[in-house]
Amino acid sequence: MQHLLLVDETFDLNFIQEYHLSIQFSLDGFSFCIRDGLQNKYIYLFHKEFSGNPKFFHRKLLDIYSEFDILEAEFKSTQLIYSSPGKMALLPEVFFDENQGMPAYQLGLDLADDEELHYRPIKAFQAVIQFAISAKVKRFFTDKHPGSVIQNEIVPQLIRSSTKSIAYPLMDIQLYKHHLTITLMDESVRFFNSFKYRNDNDLLYYILNVVKAEKIEDIKIQLSGRVNKRSPVYHQLRQYFKNVVISTRSSEVYYSYLFDQLPDARFVNLLNYQA
């Protein structure tokens, strides 16, 4: 799915001040959706894939904003979500020191010359997420959407999980084009990391090794991102675990019938962010 545009027939530029805009971006692509606040209904979704090359990231963003001037309209609210697999680390809040943040991050991850390090608290798990973002890209979104804070994708994911009753360990797995992020939690976050993968065997290897290392017997596996019920990894995991589910869109919001054609769980986090 290189390009996607879904526009419900009820979309009306005259009501833009009643609409809520959510933007999700990463090296893999750019997506945005619009929710009609009066109907509490998603009526617009756009997605475009990127090559993953950071050299062209800023240029691609400029091209999209040039094509879709609606992105700079006066929405009722604007949310910015950054997906950064391989460019983030989760630390216990008690061990976090902003003055020592960069050395701690660089113990396990590289920080490019053109990147800035940012922090977001996750109070529900007494943790802090560190993530790197291109300074030019950060400045681009700050200029385009003054007053909006760039949130890391993992934060709303963890907050949503913290509001649910977890009777057994939950492994949340987010599948990107070339990365997967594994978050294992119960009362706390027991494991968090991102891995590069080439094929489904790699996916299975990382997941099974985390379960083995954590010595877990009864676990719920929750998949989101580039996955559906036809995906090989979904069926492979069901051979090992009895409780494997794919994340779904919130039932507290309505969706245009056009959204029924979405092929996988790629936009679940984007759509659930406002729900």
Commentary on this structure:
With 275 residues, this protein is an alpha/beta fold. The chain is built from seven helices and 15 strands. A hairpin with a 2-residue loop joins strand 2 (19-26) and strand 3 (29-36). Helix 5 packs parallel to helix 6 (232-240). The model has no long low-confidence stretch (mean pLDDT 91).
Keywords:
single chain, 275 residues, 7 helices, alpha/beta
Gist?
With 275 residues, the protein is of the alpha/beta class. The chain has helices spanning 57-67, 101-106, 135-144, 154-162, 200-213, 232-240, 268-272; strands spanning 3-7, 19-26, 29-36, 41-49, 77-82, 88-92, 115-122, 127-134, 150-152, 170-175, 179-185, 189-196, 220-225, 244-246, 254-255. The chain has seven helices and 15 strands.
What is the H/E order?
EEEEHEEHEEHEHEEEHEHEEH
Shape: globular
Give the total of beta strands: 15
**Oligomeric composition of the shown chains:** single chain
Q: N-to-C terminal Cα separation, in Å? A: 25 Å
User: Percent of residues in helical segments?
Assistant: 10-25%
**Average pLDDT reading:** 91
Rg (C-alpha, Å): 19 Å
Unreliable sequence segments: none
Structural class comes to alpha/beta
Number of helices: 7
Largest sheet: 7 strands, mixed
* Percent strand: 25-35%
Give the SSE layout.
Blueprint: E1 3-7, E2 19-26, E3 29-36, E4 41-49, H1 57-67, E5 77-82, E6 88-92, H2 101-106, E7 115-122, E8 127-134, H3 135-144, E9 150-152, H4 154-162, E10 170-175, E11 179-185, E12 189-196, H5 200-213, E13 220-225, H6 232-240, E14 244-246, E15 254-255, H7 268-272
Helix pairs in contact: 5-6
